[in-house]
Amino acid sequence: MTGIGEASAILTVATFGIALSNSLIAYIGEVQDAPSRIQRIGNEVLATFACLKDIGEIVDKNHRTKTLSDEGVRSAIRCSEECKTILIELKRVLCKSGWSQQSDGLERDDIDTSLFSQMRWPVLKSKLKVPRAELMRIKVDLTLLFTSAMVIEASSATEKAKYIKNIPGLTRAQGRATAEAEQARKRAVKRERGPRFSGQDGERTEPDPELLQQFAEFQEKRMQEEEDKRLNLLLLEKEAQRKQLNTRKES
To answer: Taking a C-beta distance cutoff of 8 angstroms, is the pair 149, 72 a contact?
Structure first.
């Protein structure tokens, strides 16, 4: 049963994400004309990485509790890697041009304040659509994984039933969030594929081939992940039923 080394990596990503959200929220609090949607982005980053931290703590003790199967741990690692990718993307979009992607930290002075001007906000808003949709998707994935873990860890039948009751709604929310994230990706690629002209000579620029390749890989990866999550959910439900049956026998 894996877990200890993975937990350290997950908790490290969670720590950096929470630090970014705190810097962003603190900065926005000092800027009176900052768009309210930026505040929501900061809150969503905080909520998602707080969920990741909770999962990291479960993985950290999993070698003792056996709460998560190996597949559950792999799901946690996948979410952590996706969070790290979004973290880098948010930094790339929000930070000044001199900021290095190799840097883990983020201070308020690193944020490009000109992005929040009335002239530049529409461009920033467009760039944040995909990261925001992905954050919402990952948050639901993490919440479902956490809830499934709590079904296993529940100390009473009442507590177990409470968590089991939430699983169908979270599964539906997961489907919606996944679809919305994929739509956001498609719209981003469509913008890249559309004709774009420079302001001076009217020359058409070609779509970014790297972005198109990334989207194709993303679609293939998401299809595999959806199948993995479906199988993992079935395994968790069977494990919960087995433990509940053993508890009844013991009582």
So the answer is: yes
Both tokens assigned to 215: 């989207």
Nearest CA among 212, 146, 223 for reference residue 178: 223
**Cα 72 from Cα 146, distance rounded (Å):** 10
8 Å CB contact between 51 and 139: yes
Dist. CA 212–CA 189, nearest whole Å: 7
The span from the first CA to the last CA of the chain, in angstroms, equals: 29
Beta bridge partners of 197: 204
Query: Cβ distance 94 to 41 under 8 Å?
Result: no
pLDDT at 175: 92
pLDDT value for 194: 56
DSSP notation for the chain: ---HHHHHHHHHHHHHHHHHHHHHHHHHHH-TTS-HHHHHHHHHHHHHHHHHHHHHHHHHTHHHH--S-HHHHHHHHHHHHHHHHHHHHHHHHHB-TT--TT-----GGGB-GGGGSTTTHHHHHHHHHHHHHHHHHHHHHHHHHHHHHHHHH-SSHHHHHHHHHHHHHHHHHHHHHHHHHHHHHHHHHHHHHS-EE-TTT-PEEPP-HHHHHHHHHHHHHHHHHHHHHHHHHHHHHHHHHHHHHHHHHH-
Least confident of 62-76, 93-107, 115-129, 144-158: 93-107
